[in-house]
Amino acid sequence: MTSFSKELSFRWSDLDPNFHVRHSAYYDFGAQHRIEILENLGLTMKVLRSQNFGPILFREECVFRKEILLSDKIVMHTKISKMRPDASRWSIVHEFMNDDNKLCATITVDGAWMDTKLRKIADPTPEIAMDAIRNFPKTNDFLEL
């Protein structure tokens, strides 16, 4: 597998007054896809709650290249671009590609795992999180931190 991919379906409410996808909708699509991927990798909400940890973001950035309209066919590809060996810190990239395989936008997030009881960064990284995130497809320029 080269990436986790998802075809997006846009709603009227995803548009801004200029009739293209509003900036905050990109972030919503990225967040939803990350949660779906974690679920797919066994990190369900039930598991996260029972083991008292979850993902936390330090940075989220979107670079817009080409507008996306309501009827456009867009596939979002998600990969990991950076990670510490213990999977305690990581960066994930979402690429929004159109039917012509042109890059429309890129979201990059930097994150870690939070202990939800202590409200601090999980130390050590939960084993189940390490196993899951190591199964993420990696970017061509993947960097081990």
Looking at how many chains there are and whether they match, the oligomeric state comes to single chain
How far do the termini sit from each other?
23 Å
Number of domain units: 1
* Mean pLDDT across residues: 95
Number of helices: 3
Q: List how many beta strands DSSP finds.
A: 7
Structural class designation: alpha+beta
Give the % helix: 10-25%
Cα-based radius of gyration, to the nearest Å: 16 Å
CATH C-level name: Alpha Beta
Question: What does this protein structure show overall?
Answer:
With 145 residues, the chain is an alpha+beta fold. It has a single domain (5-144), classed as Thiol Ester Dehydrase, Chain A (Roll), CATH 3.10.129.10. It has 3 helices and 7 strands, in the order βααβββββαβ.
Q: Which descriptors apply to this entry?
A:
145 residues; alpha+beta; Thiol Ester Dehydrase, Chain A; 7-stranded mixed sheet; 3 helices; globular; 4-hydroxybenzoyl-CoA_TE
